[in-house]
Amino acid sequence: MNADTMQPIPTNIITGFLGVGKTTAIMSLLKKKPETERWAVLVNEFGEVGLDKALLSSDSSESDGLIIKEVPGGCMCCTAGLPVTVALNQILREVQPDRLLIEPSGLGHPKEVLDILTSRQYRDWIDLAATITLVDARHFSDERYITHEIFLQQLEVADLIVVNKYDDQQQADLVSMQNFLHQFDSHCTPTHHTEWGELPLSFLDKPSSFKRAVWQKVPEPKQDQKSNQQAESGPDIYEHQDDGWQSLGFRFDNTYQFDESALLQFCRESEVERLKAVVSTEMGTLFINQVYTELHFSQNSVPVKESLIEFISATPFSSVAIQAALSDCVIKRQ
């Protein structure tokens, strides 16, 4: 990398807890990207399957001026920041974008990512702009969220707090959120409302207020427990456990085709906190995005190279039972 030939890259972090709509928000920003600009997105997922990259790539490609890199499995800042620095160095050397968007895992530590971006190593390469934290007002009435370290970190580092899914919020939830933010000393952070993750490009140009010296080092994360299995004639199966959460991911090759109705019904009956899927059906490609019992899906006719399905939960589930249920949703193998 040569500082004499490259301007610092405007860089934004888009953070928020699981299922709050980070990927949807980034997709809305990408649709507004100036045609003359080349953007890069660095995305991290708690699981191992890489579904967010597949979703972000569904409407764009390198020919559209977009490069997407991923750091799968847990937190991108783990192991002394090695995964994120490797990915960042590749982007800086090979892509040299006009803007970089970073989507940490909903269970990742955003402070550590900011520490990396503001370190001496990237002082001449990264122009840190606003960190945007997406929230769901309903979470502020739930003890599991307002006592969770990572949820609180996401609020602490925010330069902008965006209340997503505003059309679904009740007045009581909004009042709970406002009271919590005031007590949390976030009442000075600008708060905006949006639906379907729609963010104006102007949010990206807001300045960052992050100062490395303010934050104490987060304790070293517990050792990840990961496994990757491949059944002799079945899908690749990925399991990952960390910090009281577990993920279960499946990769089905392009010989598999799913019954759309059966799969959607299975999703509705699944008792998990988060479910995402990009799968092949008779009608084309089915995209599924579910948070608790709130399920959204869409379709297009463009085929996919493989079907990806991922479950995330804070309560134990049976990988054997889920694989059997998914097998029941397969209508044919070519």
Automatic annotation (TrEMBL):
Region (Disordered), start-end ranges: 217-238
UniProt xrefs under Gene3D superfamilies: P-loop containing nucleotide triphosphate hydrolases
Record Pfam families: cobW
UniProt domain CobW/HypB/UreG nucleotide-binding: residue ranges: 10-185
Protein name per the record: GTP-binding protein
Gene source species: Methylophaga marina
Upper taxonomic lineage: Bacteria, Pseudomonadati, Pseudomonadota, Gammaproteobacteria, Thiotrichales
